[in-house]
Known about the structure:
heterotrimer, B: Rossmann fold, seven-stranded mixed β-sheet, two-stranded antiparallel sheet, 9 helices, 9 strands, C: alpha/beta, Rossmann fold, 2 domains, five-stranded mixed β-sheet, 16 strands, 38% helix
Amino acid sequence: MTKSIIIAGxxxxxxxxxxxxxxQAAMDDxxxxxxxxxxxxxxxxxxxxxxxxxSDAEIGSPCVEKADVIIAMNQxxxxxxxxxxxxxxxxxxxxxxxxxxxxxKALKFPFTEIAINLGNIxxxxxxxxxxxxxxxKIVPVKNIVNIxxxxxxxxxxxxxxxxxAALNKGLEL
Amino acid sequence: MDKIYTHxxxxxxxxxHYCPGCGHGILHRIIAEVVDELAIREKVIGIAPVGCAxxxxxxxxxxxxxxxxxxxxxxxxxxxxVRKENIVFTYQGDGDLAAIGTNETIHAANRxxxxxxxxxxxxxxxxTGGQMAPTTLLNQKTATTPKGRxxxxxxxxxxxxEMLALxxxxxxxxxxxxxxxxxxxxxxxxxxxxxLNQVENIxxxxxxxxxxxxxxxxxxxxxxxxxxxxxxxxxxxxxxxK
Amino acid sequence: MxxxxxxxxxxxxxxxxAEGAIRAGCTFYAGYPITxxxxxxxYMAEHMQDRGGVFIQxxxxxxxxxxxxxxxxxxxxxxxxxxxxxxxxxxxxxxYIAGAELPVVIVNIMRGGPGLGNIWPGQSDYFQATxxxxxxxxxxxxxxxxxxxxxxxxxILAFNLADQxxxxxxxxxxxxxxxxxxxxxxxxxFVIKNVDKSWALTGCKDRKPNIVKSFYMVKGDLEKFNLxxxxxxxxxxxxxxxxxxxxVKDAKLVLVAYGSMARIAKAxxxxxxxxxxxxxxxxxxxxxxxxxxxxxxxxxxxLVVEMSYGQLIEDVKLSLSVxxxxxxxxxxxxxxxxxxxxxxxxxxxxxx
Lengths: 173, 242, 352
């Protein structure tokens, strides 16, 4: 089984990071996995996306042409990637920052608003990852929890709490 | 009877390829004497980049490396960084140090690399046939400034030593000359100081030596010495710069 | 199929190359930032000094390659890395390194060209890498990893070959391979083959002075030196060809691709096999010496797949002693042939 995922948004939204978290969770589940970033020339703002492929077999191209999952965290990303979805794929959109036209089938959640309510706008990415895992068990949730714990700097334990809360909120959506 | 003068151990007993009246032979010997006096022959590594003195290793009797044109200080930087116990020096002409290698010169100096630089300024390109150097004087005729160097077309003689003196990484700069026995003695003193600085980990040290090139200046060896004394030192004043 | 549960780390190709180099005994690195290899210089900056090595951010690509020349001249394992435009700048230095017979490893994470091009994957520097690149009759040993694990594993081979043959070794990757993260197993033991380096500059204590040079003015000397180089290259061609074969034995059509392009070609081969097509893949691992032996028993048909416009195909054709049908599919400038495009082309060639 192979799953291909595109995660897209603007620079600074933690797009690359949740892609890596997802990839690492898959690696910890003994899967083959590739993570490929794509940036514009700009560092902040603009668009950024990454492609993650998770498979039981050796992976050829790390580039995703048609995705099983697309997470679009802002309007530009939604516009850019909505047509790259597989027939049976799911499109998850951050409705706080993107309007979805009526003819596109998508799961819409206000990730940014939820994150603001959790007290840290930066965890919108983790809410989105939670939402994805709530719909499709691509990787074990416990792996994500472990990675969150490993990643937080020792002097900032509050980051673990807020990211876990964000993940859980997403899972409940 | 005490022997007070002899052939330096660090200099091979061979005839050089330099033209009559050229300054390189004197400078090679000065360096060899200093290497002997400081007893560093077994740990010195010389870098000879492209220029008339590219085969200086045929004359010095210690470890040497060639370097591509302008890259002596990049090569020397790496050698010194991986072998701090060695004494590393470059021997560069004006084209090498102040034209094609300006970038390497400025950045090695700015990093404050603990190196010794011997910079031979003869205001001309010798190896390639007497073309303009960055240090060629105004109105000086060369193969590429047949009517004399014109500031409006070719800019001014580049005072790289004064420029380098501005950098905090640079610890010692002196300009000397080979135009008389007294000046040669001063040159040796300065070169010895530049080597000593490295031995004592003081940092980037450079000696600029005004050196005659009778062949491409188109005058006799003795006239060449006079030209340095009367003309060249006006543009490139001698003495301690930093 | 599940991968064995050995402890792995998720790491990019660029970082895997850097870590592999350090474990292979590289103690000197100089480089200049350029996308898409910045993770490599970044990794070296973070780790080199703490692990007993020297890291220098050089003032230019030109300075970096000449620093590596200097470090290698003292006998230490030295490396620089860059991407296409930067590697062009290094060519003079690489020629000097080949001329002075210094063991140096150079990494090129290729991007789109010519000129400033773009920062996306490309393989358009194939000719530059395999034909020498700078002035003079010389060759670099060229290794092409195809995944992150190989990026790491290949570094010990690169440094050992460089030392053994006193020759520059080029690691030729591309933006896709450099930027991509994959799980990496670092438990393999690297065996550093120590060779005699009595030629190195260390100070002439208890021996005659050593000279590192590439200048031969006495008539006939340079010709002799060039003949010596040619002998070395012949030995390399005879002993060091490396390639991977995938389902070649019964294949009627064999795809030829290297580096990350070979991953995609391999995926196409698998899909074609599922449809009963007898298709295989030859993946050159050494691009120079090119694996001529892989083409000794020619198949009827070949399809060369490149991220360039007809460079690898020249070596394939030069390696074939008979007239086989050699098809081509290539894209450059940031794009690359997709699995689907390869399958369409392969089917046409296979049935035609």
